[in-house]
Amino acid sequence: MNQVEKVNLLDFDRQGLREFFAQLGEKPYRAEQVMKWMYHHLEDNFENMTDVGKALRTKLEAVCYIGPPKTLFDKGAVDGTHKWLLGMDGGNAVEAVYIPEPTRGTLCVSSQVGCGLNCQFCSTATQGFNRNLATSEIIGQMWVAAKHLGNVTHQNRRITNVVMMGMGEPLLNFDNVVKAMSLMRDDLGFGLASKRVTLSTAGLVPMIDKLSESIDVSLAVSLHAANDELRTELVPLNKRFPIAELMASCQRWIARKPRTSITFEYTLMKGVNDQPEHARQLIKLMRKLPTCKVNLIPFNPFPGTRFERSDMETIRAFQTQLLNANILTMLRRTRGDDIDAACGQLKGQVLDRTRRQAEFRKRLDEGAVHAA
Ligand code: SAH
Question: pLDDT at position 216, please?
Answer without folding.
Answer: 97
